[in-house]
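> Could you send the Saccharopine dehydrogenase NADP binding domain-containing protein prediction when you get a chance?

Sure thing. Input:
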Amino acid sequence: MTTDVLITGTGMFAGRIALDIAATAKEPVSVVIAGRNVDRLQWLQTAGNARAAMFGTPATFRAHRIDLLEEGASEALLSELKPRIVVQAASIQTSSVISDQGSRWTQLVAEGGLSATAVFQALMSSRMAAAITKLCPKTPLINCSFPDVVNVMITAMGHDVLCGTGNVAILSNVFRGAPARPEGTLRVLAHYQCLKPWRQPATERTGPAPRIFADDTEVADPFATFAECKLTPEPAIEISGASGVTLILALAAGTPWSGHVPGPCGLPGGYPVTLSEAGVMSLDLPASVTEAEAVAWNDAFEHAGGLTVSGSRASYNGRLAELLRAEGFAHADGFDVADLEAVCADMLGLRDRLMSEPA
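Output:
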């Protein structure tokens, strides 16, 4: 039995991808959803096949029970299922951390930024990337776990990653759907840190704005132009999870695609891109912006506050570094990406301690 798309993880993000594939597929596509939550797996299989029948699409869904954290789990999945595309949506850090409150851990993340969770997000994705390198190096990997930062880490470890989903694609699709959008093809440069202002009321928006171009003309004031657009305080799963679906289906069908993705080919932040029939992804920048300029603009966010990678060395920066040092985190001054597993174990210890302490 063939597997066109393997989705690892059973959370809300993975579920949105699977169920929107069910509703929108135009060419036959076989999807396997893998994870350890049996009840959730059974539901996603049932709901996926029901939605395919409901919408009359040629998509089929199967569930595969596996503990993705077990040693060799990624290799076992690839060896047994031989997927054409891997969509990695499993993580040991839930996305709700952006809206949860009450503990010193959520307080640290709110003040220091989401890159406090980067090693958690990278753990399972780096394992899958390593397994692909070992067993099927031509299989494209779409990493859904914090791709603006994690994809840079994956490539620094010597593995390939096609791109991520969400983040820049949240904003680009919000702007494309806005009644006040300017005429022309919209191209957006946006780091995940650009999302935060759009969770605030229009009159309270401050902070980093995305760069938006209508054809080759840059929008002078994105906050004013798109004042009516607003995200939820919680993760915008309805858009972020869905944003990868057209890309996944194009990749499965071998058809060209254009849109926006975070972390294309391991770059930091988010960009407009094109995908060729052969599955090759390229940046699709406005004529006035060079690749070096776009990469530097995105990379500057994490240099100001977050996690950056140079060579094989990951470094915490800005307020996040200060907070981790204050908590006595052993790797606050950085670490080699090859030591990710050990760093993650130490960070779990810090998280567990801070989660038990009220903010």
